Amino acid sequence: MRVPETTTGRLIATVLVSLGLVAASPAGDTPHAQCGGASAFAEGSSDARRDVQRALSTKDVRERTNALDAALRGADSAEAADAVIELVFATETPQMVLDVGVRALGRMTSVAAQEAVGRALERPIRVRRVLIAEALGRSSEASARIRLTALARNPDVRVRAAAVTALAEHRSPAALDEFAAALDDPEWTVRSAAVRGIALIGEPKSAPLLVARLRKEDGRLLDDLSDALATLTGKRYGPDADAYDRLSGKSDAKSDGKSDAKSDAKLGAQVPPPTFTTGLFETRSRRILFVLSVAETMKDPVHRAGSEGAVVAGVAKAGADLADLLIDAKTKMDVARTHLRGMLRTLGDGVEFDVMTYAGSPTFAFGQFTRADDAARRKAESRIARLTAGGPPDLYDAFERILDPRAKDPLDVADGPDTVVLVTDGALPSQGMNDRTEIGPREARWNRARQIRYIVVAVGQAEPGPIGYLAGGPPAGITVSVP
């Protein structure tokens, strides 16, 4: 098939190749070459791989980043795309360097470069597919959405989740059908990414689709759906599907929002209760990792920790003793320990959980996810109650253990949490490990495939610093500050 020698023709060629309707043209006779086009690397394309290799050999990470940025500036050839995918895209690559590679690949528009991307996607290398999906999410090319749509049907769940996440970033109403289909994916991570995609497009007419899903889901997905419906409707009813139906007039209940006490009680009984009690936030996750900083900085003093009546009242629901401890709190550690004890004490039966503390090397209460019962709750709370602060705030290693507890591959963890509750002052590690480009962005990048929801309880500060990357998503989490 010969493609017309026009800009439109080149785009059609790209789409046809991506769909597999035509084969990639032989070297020297690509549709791009037929048009007489030339990439920005036209004359020096043979040097693209060498330039990337030379840049990556630089020892200093910042110098390496700058060198790679210079090497890829204007790059738009098949060889440049191959160099990025084969040499840059790896889990051990520093985030600043990966950012350059992802941005560069996302800018490449030539048919030759797009064909190189297509060939790479046919190879079963998960990390490359996940990073290519991120690059396609940044691309303005029409073919990018086609490729992402195909990736959203990939057999690998991590690739599917990353592809739907990237597709969401196009914010295209044309993708609504793809997100609707992804809502029926057997894996919750893909459904979570689809919910975010619908929320980002922001069309209120999509709300009934999410309300219908609200009646089918449980656990973490209820949090995602509740947030998305609040975005689309401007009303926050949590996981109460009937309340959203009443809002749209589809319920038998009175459409003016008024109903009798008997009706309210019946509807309320259908709404799953929060996983635990706290005055700070709500979650209905059933697989939670609680993480607490016990670093030296948690010895810092606090003032008026019990000054917010609603927060104290929330803690009091877990026990009057905890409310008293919060009012009398003198340090960040006192505040953090009290809030976490309240969450653990009220954790619902059957919820799978573990508790990790970090200062230096992270340690776990159980070492595996454990079903909550009286014995497990007592063990976890008792351990937290005895803790004292001391040691370096090794936030880097803490995040690494959250995402990759076996130190093998952050994309190959089958038994991790779907929600992390992180109670910390956000203090960074010692000099040499305080690079904001590595703490937070690294986890946020791989989380595009994992879809862990981060709930950050920032103790003694208004902003959680680099860890705000995590609560910002995807998927969207929560950040709350306590005195």
Task: Write up this protein.
The protein is of the alpha/beta class. The chain folds into 3 domains: 117 residues, no CATH class; 68 residues, no CATH class; 196 residues, von Willebrand factor, type A domain (Rossmann fold, 3-Layer(aba) Sandwich). It is 49% helix and 7% strand. The protein is built from 23 helices and 7 strands. Strands 1, 2, 3, 4, 5, 6 and 7 form a 7-stranded mixed β-sheet that branches. Strand 6, helix 23 and strand 7 form a beta-alpha-beta unit. Helix 1 runs parallel beside helix 7 and helix 3 runs antiparallel to helix 4. The longest helix has 14 residues. It is globular. The N and C termini lie far apart (67 Å).
Query: Helix count, per DSSP?
Result: 23
Quickly count the domains.
Answer: 3
Based on the structure given, which CATH architecture of the largest domain is correct? 3-Layer(aba) Sandwich
- Secondary structural class: alpha/beta
pLDDT < 50 runs, ≥5 residues? 1-44, 253-268
Strand percentage, roughly? 5-15%
- The helix fraction, in percent, is 40-55%
- State the end-to-end distance: 67 Å
Q: Supply Rg.
A: 25 Å
CATH top level of the largest domain? Alpha Beta
- Tell me the major beta sheet: 7 strands, mixed
In round numbers, the mean pLDDT is: 85
- CATH homologous superfamily name of the largest domain? von Willebrand factor, type A domain
> What are the secondary-structure elements, in order, as H or E?
HHHHHHHHHHHHHHHHEHHHEEEHHEHEHE
**What is the global morphology?**
globular
Total beta strand runs = 7
CATH topology of the largest domain: Rossmann fold
